[in-house]
Every structure is written in structure tokens, then in C-alpha cells.
Amino acid sequence: MGFADLLNEVGGFGRYQWLHVTLISFPGLLMASQNLLNNFVSGIPDHHCRLPTNHSIYNLSLSQVDERQLLRVFIPLDSSGNRFDRCRRYVEPQWQLLAANSSANVSFVKTEECEDGWTYDHTEFEATTVSEWDLVCSMRPLKQMIQTIYMGGVLAGAIVYGGLSDRFGRRTVLIWSYLQVAVLGCSCAFSPSYTVYCILRFLCGMAVSGVILNGVSLKVEWIPTKTRTIVGTLTSFFFTFGQMVLAGLAYWLRNWRTLHVVVCAPHFLFFAYSWWYSESARWLVLNGKSEEALKNLHRVARINGKPEMVDKITLEVLHSHMNKEIESSRSTFTAYDLLRTRGMRRISICLIAVWFSTSFAYYGLAMDLQKFGVSIYVMQLIFGAVDIPAKLLALGMLSFLGRRITQATCLFLSAVIIFANIFVPTEMQTLRTTLACLGKASTSSSFTTVYLYTGELYPTVIRQTGMGFVSTMARVGSMAAPAVLILDEVLPALPSVVYGGAAVLASGFACFLPETLNVPLPDTIEDLDFHVSSPINCDCTLMSVSIFYQLVQTGLTLSCTVVTPVDSCSIVYSWVLLV
Question: Which of 120, 140, 162 is at the close of a domain?
Fold first, then answer.
């Protein structure tokens, strides 16, 4: 007997679970807005050096000169020769370029940086942090630094709020996180400077991590085993639709300050109704609050139309169902315990690799929408829409093939697509964009799977600490992804090789995770170690690692090198089963 049996007795997935899961999932519509907001609030509008303030003193009727002709006098063309340079201007105006069919050689004319600032085109964006604080040219790295700092906050939040929720409860930390996102998110819109804005985004990132991690745990711990798969997958669609909502809001609200308020203010509503949530009964029992856990179970039974169970479920019945978990909870658990036993160590190492690579590839594709040459709003809408069929396919795979095969397949497929894009010429922009969308869909499915999978793998006594620990690697991946883009200066294909290589290696690590399809949630570390002790099939890992080496060799040298199965298995197996 276990807690899962009690859930079935009070109605299984009844009316309460429907309300509970739906209300916790609604904020997911705006979680995508938080994570991808930098694409729009820090969008880079077309720009060029501001013309010298004294250009009108020249003896010329400027009213007879259109804007593009005038720009030719002051602004050189860039290296492509098709558009004006964004960061340089002529030291002296080149009036001879106004002559019809002028072929004057200006390649050796002196240029200078934009001493008077920049002029921005407001067609695509009314105002962004880039145009407000001139985060262009030599200051352009500061634009991407905003996203890196935000993801650093998400990383810090995974560490801090993961531990706090195991100590103070999922519900308490979740309620606080809603309030923190609402207050600090709206405060970002009133930032007087770049520094203040970055600080507020960091703190907002911490709260977003608290919302995501505690929302997942609170959902998982109140739903029966057999419905976890479909609930986990379907609720991930809130994040998918949230990406499309973001595209619409950003298109409607072209000012970054207004957009910030609109995507953050609804969290005041989430904070208001979150007091209705019931704290996890599992957590309450394991923290010596059995009476409160019993009240919550009785409440759930009444809402589910099972009032007769109120008299049947007593403290004695509750303790008899969770006796083993109560005994285990008398020990104090820390992050060290995630690596203490062989089973915990194996799961943690594999999940670290999966979380890092999923986020690394996802944000490598999703955080640079302007490079595709398509409207950034359309690209965001497409990137959100492709998740729908991808997640429906993942739902079927999770239900019939299991978690392990689904996780490995999604990662491996995303790697293959990323590698394939290496060989597509840059002129074939439509095909490159299509492959990027498919790769993003695969990584989104991987995210859906790993959130569900992680919650099922770690035991109740340390689940939240475990989720916080391994998801920190996802934040490291999201912080590292933009930095890899500079490698294209060394070799254009190198960023894709790195993104794809990380994904295919992680698919190999995923093969070493135990299957959790239709398996009750483990409550103690001993439960987990017993489940993990089953033999491992290395075939999946052999395929992933062998093909990875072949693809890397193909991408760099256009040749194919065969890696022996014995070598492939020993490489990964030696790390995963490290004692």
C-alpha cells in the first residue's frame, strides 16, 4: 500500500484534480513570455549613425534630396554592399555621391564611429531596451547579457527555491513566487537604467524558476500514477500556446515597457487564487504535519464527490499507507544525497546531461529569431505552432513507448536536424528555417518529457531538491547557448556541431535512466535504488554515440568514421556507472 492508493480512494483524477491542475497550469501561458521576452523587449531595430547636427550648413537644398540619397553622403555601405553600415559614418560628407550614376571610389575614405549616437527605424519596434540605451555596435554584447543575467536568475532560483520548497512546502514557495514575478516584473517596466533593469530581471528569473519547479511538483503529487503522462503532456501545451500569445502581444504592443507590464501583471491574479491550492499531502506527512495532510485529503474527497471517505480515512490509515516514507523522512537530505547511492548517482548524472543539452539546443535556436530573415512576430508564432504536433506525438510515445525511449528519441532527432542544417546553403533560407522549426519542436518535446520524467524519478523525500539540482544545468545550458554563436567566426558550422553534439550525447545518457511508465512514484531513496537495480540495455546508447561520432566527422571533414560498439558503450557506461 502507498499514497497512490489513497489518491484513488478519494476519487483518483476527479473534480479537484481538474481544478488544481488547470489553475496551476494557467501561469504557463506567461512563462514562455518571461523566457523569450528578450527577443522583443531587446529586439534590434534597423539603425545607422545619426547625421551630424551641422549638416544643414552645407550649400545644398536638402529638401530636394530624398533620405536614402542623403544617407549615402554621410554613411558608407557595409561589407555586403547592399545596406548602410550600422556603426560607421564618413568623417567628411561625400557630396559627390549625389551625382547621377556616381561611381566615385570611397573605399579609402576615412570613417569614424557614431559620435552623435544612432537613428533607429521604428517600423518593427516602437521602442526597445536596445534603442533606449543604445545597445548596438560595440555595446551590442550588453543586449545578450540581459538574457544571460535573466537565465542566471533562473539558475539561482532553481537552487534556492528547490531547497526552500522541501523545507517550507510547495504551496508556500509557489504563492511567494507568483507575487515576486508580479511585483518585480512590472517594476522592470519602470527601470531608469540598464543596471537596474538587469538586477530586476535577475530577481524575476529566480521567481520564474520557483513557479515552474513548484508548479510541476504540486501537480505531480496530487494526481494518480496512470494519469501522470497525459496530464504532464497536455499541461505543457499552456507553455506552447504561451509562445503564440507572446507573438500576438509583442505585435500589438511595440513598446517594451508596456509589454513588460502586460505579461507580468496577470501574476497578481495567480497570486490571489493560489491560496486555494492544497499543500501536498505527501510533503505534509513526511514533515510531521499529518493532521493537516488528513484535512487536505478529506477536502479533496468532498470536492471529488466522495464524502464517505472522510470517515474511513483516519490518521492511522494515512500512516499505515505511508509508514515506510515516514521512517525514511526522519533523515535529513541535502544535495549531497543526490549522489550518495549508486542509483541516485546514476539518475542525477544522466538527468544533468539531459537537462543541459535540451536547454542548450532549445535556446540556441529560440533566442535569435531575427537571423531568419522573416518577421520576428511570424517566426515566434511558427516556433510556437510547431510544438503542437510535436507534443501530441510525444504524448503518444510517452504513453506507449515509455519515458526513456521518448527522451532519447527527441534528443537524438533534434541533433540529426541540427546537423542536417549544416549542409543546407544559406541561400535556401526557407529550408533552413523549416529545419530550425523542426529542431525546436524536437527540443520542446524533450523539455516536456524531462519535466515529467524528473518528477517521477526522484523520491518524494528529496524530489524538489533533485529537480532544483538537475534543472540548474538547464539554466547553465541556456546561459551558454548564446556564447556558442561566436564560434561561427572560426567555422560557420561549428555552433551547429556543438548544439547537435551535446544533444546526441545526452540521448545516450537518457538510455541509462530507468523506465517509469505506470510505475508508482518512489517515496524513499530505497524505493529508487530497488527500481534502478534492473539491468541496462546498451543498444540505444550504442546507436546514439556511434552516429554522433560519424556525424561530427561528416560535418567537419565530409568523411564518415565508424566507431566500434564496444568503444561507444564503454565511454558512456564508465561515466554513468561511476562509483
Answer: 120
- Window from 146-160, 261-275, 330-344 with minimum mean pLDDT: 330-344
The answer for residues whose C-beta is within 8 angstroms of residue 1's C-beta and 6 or more apart is: 320, 321
User: Would you say residue 326 lies in a domain?
Assistant: no
Overall average pLDDT of the 199-224 stretch: 88
Average pLDDT over residues 275-300: 84
* Cα angle for residues 181, 182, 188 (degrees, 5° grid): 80
Tell whether the model's pLDDT for residue 287 goes beyond 70: yes
Give, in order, the Cα–Cα distances in Å from 173 to each of 68, 274, 422.
Answer: 56, 11, 44
Q: With both helix axes pointing from N to C terminus, report the angle between 194-220 and 170-188 in degrees, rounded to the nearest 10.
A: 150
- Closest to 61 (Cα-Cα) out of 50, 53, 69: 69
In-domain check, residue 296: no
CATH number at residue 433: 1.20.1250.20
- CA–CA distance, 514 with 519 (Å, rounded to integer): 10
Phi, psi of 117 (to 5 degrees): 90, -160
Which grid cell sits at 287? 514533515
Q: What does the pLDDT read at residue 547?
A: 43
Q: Which helix (H) or strand (E) holds 414?
A: helix 403-422
The number of helix segments (H) and strand segments (E) in the chain equals 28, 4
First-last CA distance in the chain: 33
Alpha-carbon distance 504 to 17, whole Å? Answer: 37
Mean pLDDT of 21-48: 86
Co-location of 72 and 203 in the same domain = no
- Residue 573's nearest CA partner among 486, 532, 512, 484 is 512
pLDDT: is 538 or 243 the higher one? Answer: 243
- Give φ, ψ of 266 to 5 degrees: -60, -20
Whether 146 is in a domain gets the answer yes
Max mean pLDDT among 89-98, 347-356, 362-371 falls in 347-356
> How many domains are contained in the chain?
3
440 and 342 belong to one structural domain? yes
Q: What is the average pLDDT score of the chain?
A: 78
Cell 545596406 belongs to 83
Q: Are 214 and 255 in contact (CB under 8 A)?
A: no
The alpha carbon dihedral of 202, 191, 128, 262 has a sign of positive
Range of the domain at 219: 14-42+122-275
Q: Quick one: DSSP state of residue 77? A: B
Tell me the β-bridge partners of 84.
77
Average pLDDT (275-283) is 85
- Cα dihedral 344, 346, 350, 352 sign: positive
Separation between Cα atoms, residue 535 and residue 64, nearest integer Å:
82
127 is written with which cell numbers? Answer: 521602442
CA neighbours within 13 Å on the CB side: how many for 397?
19
pLDDT, residue 196, reads: 94
